[in-house]
Design a protein that fits this description.
With 437 residues, the chain is an alpha+beta fold. It has 16 helices and 16 strands. Helix 1 packs antiparallel against helix 6 and helix 6 packs parallel to helix 10 (245-260). The structure holds histidyl-adenosine monophosphate (HAM). Histidyl-adenosine monophosphate binds next to strand 6, strand 10, strand 11 and helix 12. Residues 94-96, 126, 128, 133-135, 138, 140, 142, 144, 274, 296-301, 303, 319-323, 325-326 line the site of histidyl-adenosine monophosphate (HAM).
Length: 437
């Protein structure tokens, strides 16, 4: 059997690849109005960045991270030698840690500077169980704003994301925006203990992993996919009852700003998101149709300690990412289809093989004037060249025959009206430019 793409990866064929480019352009346009600028970070980073940034106890790092071994490292492992931490590389499972690493490394937020607003797009990798809307390589667009802990940043970014979904065409009525606050270093430790105790009190009712989470990372029990555990966690004490005064004020301001902007949301204290770096605001946008259990099309939150976790100075941050493929599924569920493959403006049909070189030359003249032009490369009959022109949705066909060529002319057919004119070869490009561009 011919070699197939690896499980959980997907080729973006031309129509979809063009659609992914349009998705990114729209994001640059909508987020650009809010001051977000493109940044490109490597697809491979040191594995340690994700271990320290996202957290060893998260599924993303613990179970799903693809590590990348160079030939040299592989040899070391086989020979029983250790691979140095800085040579252990991983394919990025998400974009935030890499962007924050770049901000720290290049000092993009020097003291007193305004926040750095950064936008990225590209593939992410997680070794998850593959299902609809859950791939091992998927595409995200994300933003990160570093250098301010003000709640206006949180609200601004969430409002901006909802505008993006509007422009994309996902109906507001099919989306729900969930928000929560995860507290900060002052109030979260106490809540963590409360949840650890809750897990221990109900020890026998929880799955084995959650029983362990009671000792390693109790809040991760909120992420458990086991329906039994999820039902138990819905009855757990809510973090909102344990937030410190500052966190309450921060959370209330975010909600008030969303209210003023007319953005509807639902508070959900079980929303902790699967990454350890979050503090204070977390949010997720879910859709109700077409995606089954993988219904989160985007999400994010605040991460005021992440820069320090990876060795930088305190630099509060907020961001989100959205999944391109899941947004496409949501659009499909809302009735959208991808546009047909792009054809060409002009097709040059040859009456016989004698005129092929002139057709080739004329095609180049048309393309130099930015008219997309195709010719036959397979010695087709005139009839099949017309069929091909139809298939390519050519708006005009130039018919080149030896008799017309001898007089320095060609026939130009309008494929919409079927009108034909005979026109000089030196005039045809100008005529096409006027008619088509
Ligand atoms: P995340 O929630 O892990 O957050 O991913 C963001 C989005 O990526 C999800 O809402 C979903 O649409 C998409 N996604 C995630 N995993 C998959 C998958 N296996 N297959 C298809 N799509 C997927 C983050 O990645 C954070 N870095 C967001 C963030 C930015 N937080 C702060 N700044």
């Amino acid at each position: 059997m011919a070699i197939q793409a690896p499980k959980g990866t997907k080729d973006l064929l031309p129509v979809e690849a063009a659609n992914w480019q349009d998705f990114q352009s729209l994001a640059r346009e909508v987020f650009g109005v809010y001051g977000y600028r493109l940044i490109e970070t490597p697809i491979i980073e040191t594995a340690e960045l994700f271990v320290r940034g996202i957290g060893q106890a998260t599924d993303v790092v613990n179970k799903e991270m693809f590590e990348a071994l160079s030939g040299e490292n592989m040899k070391s492992l086989i020979e029983g030698r250790e691979v140095k931490a800085k040579s252990r590389l991983a394919l990025r499972p998400e974009g935030t840690a890499g962007v924050v690493r770049a901000v720290v490394q290049h000092d993009l937020v020097p003291q007193g500077a305004p926040p750095a607003k950064l936008l990225y797009a590209g593939p992410m990798f997680r070794a998850e169980n593959v299902q609809k809307g859950r791939q091992r390589q998927f595409n995200q667009v994300g933003v990160e704003c570093l250098g301010s802990e003000e709640p206006t940043i949180d609200a601004e970014a969430i409002i901006m994301l909802m505008h993006f979904f509007d422009r994309l065409g996902i109906p507001r009525s099919s989306m729900v925006l969930l928000i929560n606050s995860m507290g900060c270093d002052h109030c979260r430790p106490a809540y963590r203990d409360v949840i650890a105790q809750y897990l221990q009190e109900h020890h026998d009712e929880f799955c084995h992993t959650c029983q362990e989470r009671a000792h390693t990372n109790p809040l991760r029990a909120f992420d458990c996919k086991d329906p039994n555990c999820a039902a138990l966690m819905e009855k757990a004490p809510a973090i909102t009852d344990y937030l410190c005064e500052d966190c309450v004020a921060h959370y209330e301001t975010v909600k008030a700003l969303l209210d003023r902007a007319g953005i509807e949301y639902k508070e959900d204290f079980t929303l902790v998101r699967g990454l350890d770096y979050y503090t204070r605001t977390v949010f997720e946008v879910q859709v109700d149709g077409g995606l089954g259990s993988q219904n989160a099309i985007g999400g994010g939150g605040r991460y005021d300690r992440l820069a320090e976790e990876i060795g930088g100075r305190p630099t509060p941050g907020f961001g989100f990412a959205l999944g391109y493929e899941r947004c496409q599924l949501a659009l499909e569920a809302a009735g959208f289809t991808l546009p047909p493959e792009q054809g060409c403006d002009v097709f040059i049909a040859c009456v016989n093989d004698e005129v092929r070189e002139q057709a080739f030359e004329l095609a180049e003249r048309c393309r130099s004037s930015l008219i997309s032009t195709e010719i036959d490369h397979q010695h087709r009959s005139l009839k099949s060249q017309f069929k091909l022109a139809d298939r390519l949705s050519a708006a005009r066909v130039i018919i080149l025959g030896p008799d017309e060529l001898a007089e320095g002319r060609c026939v130009l057919r309008d494929m919409g009206t079927h009108n034909e004119i005979t026109i000089g070869l030196d005039e045809v490009v100008t005529e096409l430019t006027n008619a088509l561009l």
